[in-house]
């Protein structure tokens, strides 16, 4: 094992990878996160080979696109969010043969859904903007704990990554959820959402 980058933080490793194409820095990030990413993929997919493939594909993409990738948040948040998206795509592909055409659905089922998809889309975009804005104002540890938990990690895995206790992770997640609930409730009371 190469100990050259053992004490280097993730952000500095990413800078070396993206700017200098440093393979040793990449190997260190791989060493830090591959097993955790695999554990999550295996837990979600239930297949060893599929989990190995998806994690390997993620790291291959990470290396081959290193100059184009922009990591706005923390490196582990990027990796786990990318993995979550790949898992979702994989599960969608498995479900594709089970998809039903809208033409095959009874008209009553279709009428039960929104009659104004444009308004729904606008409300969704406004809610997403509020969500992003509120997340950006949170303390860093709270935001990181929340984002990692939403990328599919358990509280224990999040605690290990952030080097804090599980109780602290739970506290941060509860705090973020409380803040987001209050903001969304306030917006609904103002009539910004859910109005016909």
Automatic annotation (TrEMBL):
It comes from the Bacteria. GO terms for molecular function: DNA binding; sigma factor activity. Gene3D superfamilies: 1.10.1740.10, Winged helix-like DNA-binding domain superfamily/Winged helix DNA-binding domain. Keywords: Sigma factor, Transcription, Transcription regulation. SMART domains: HTH_LUXR. Residues 135-194 form the HTH luxR-type domain. GO terms for biological process: DNA-templated transcription initiation. InterPro entries: RNA_pol_sigma-70-like, RNA_pol_sigma-70_dom, RNA_pol_sigma70_bacteroid, RNA_pol_sigma70_r2, RNA_pol_sigma70_r4_t2, RNA_pol_sigma_r2, RNA_pol_sigma_r3/r4-like, Tscrpt_reg_LuxR_C. Belongs to the sigma-70 factor family. ECF subfamily. This is RNA polymerase sigma-70 factor (ECF subfamily).
């Amino acid at each position: 094992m190469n100990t050259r980058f053992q004490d280097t933080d993730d952000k500095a490793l990413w800078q070396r990878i993206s700017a200098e194409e440093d393979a040793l820095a990449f190997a260190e990030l791989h060493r830090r996160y591959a097993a955790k990413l695999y554990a999550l993929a295996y837990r979600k997919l239930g297949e060893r080979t599929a989990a190995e493939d998806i994690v390997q594909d993620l790291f291959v993409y990470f290396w081959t696109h290193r100059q184009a990738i922009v990591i706005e948040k923390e490196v582990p948040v990027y990796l786990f969010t990318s993995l979550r998206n790949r898992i979702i795509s994989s599960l969608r592909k498995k479900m594709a043969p089970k998809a039903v055409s809208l033409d095959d659905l009874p008209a009553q089922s279709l009428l039960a859904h929104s009659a104004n998809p444009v308004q729904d889309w606008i409300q969704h975009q406004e809610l997403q903007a509020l969500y992003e804005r509120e997340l950006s104002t949170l303390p860093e540890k709270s935001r990181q704990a929340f984002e990692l938990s939403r990328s599919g990690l358990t509280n224990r895995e999040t605690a290990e990554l952030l080097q804090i206790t599980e109780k602290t992770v739970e506290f941060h997640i509860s705090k973020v959820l409380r803040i987001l609930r209050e903001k969304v409730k306030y917006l609904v009371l103002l009539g910004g959402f859910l109005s016909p």
